[in-house]
Amino acid sequence: MSTDLDDRPVEAPAAHRISLALLGTFLGLGLLTVALVGLLRERMVLNWAEGHRDAREIVAQRGLDYLMDERPIAVPQFFAVASVLFVTVAALVVVLTMFYAHGHHWARVCLTVLLVMTAVATGSGMRVDPPTTFLLLSYLAIALIVALLVAMWHPSTSEHLRATRSRVDRGAV
Where are the alpha helices (DSSP H) in the chain? Predict the structure, then answer.
């Protein structure tokens, strides 16, 4: 074991620890959103139908239950899409977070790209007038992503990642 003080493990700075906690919160918010998509299925379909002439006419004439049960036209399967998207993004976030937590800068870059793409997609979804619940969750998600990016790219986090990489390069780990 080396006696060099530079070879001792360095505790991650607060910004790095906060970013890891926020990544967990981000996944929790995604899971909550998927659960609400399933629970509020009728509201989602009704909201969608309001924006589509044929669906709107069917709901006006025969009711929402008829549209959802008989499917005279294709009705979006919001829960299936949301579930698959969540599992895919969550798997990427979990794997990248493991590398990021252990000091890999490239994982931070990959997480940044993923988070920015998520923010753009969320913003795009907000433009189609989602139900209020999902609009609020979208604003919360974007705020969370901004906080995440600030913590992930904080100077103390960057210094920690550099120091960790330096220790690995010297064989201290």
Answer: 14-39, 41-50, 53-62, 64-70, 78-101, 105-126, 132-152, 155-169
pLDDT in the model for residue 9: 61
96 touches 110 (CB < 8 A) = yes
pLDDT at 37: 96
Q: Is-contact 157 15, C-beta < 8 A?
A: yes
Residue 103, sorted as left (phi over 0), alpha (psi -120 to 50) or beta, turns out to be left
Burial class (CB in 10 A: 0-12, 13-18, 19+), 147: middle
* Rounded Cα–Cα distance for residues 81 and 15 (Å): 34
**pLDDT beneath 70: ranges in the chain:** 1-9, 172-173
| Entry field: residues in the chain | 173
Distances from the Cα of 40 to the Cα of 2, 47, 55, 130, angstroms? 58, 11, 18, 12
pLDDT confidence of residue 36: 98
> Are residues 80 and 35 in contact, defined by beta-carbon separation less than 8 angstroms?
no
Distances 44 to 53, 97, 107, 139 between C-alpha atoms, Å = 16, 32, 35, 18
| Contact in structure between 49 and 65 (CB atoms under 8 Å) | no
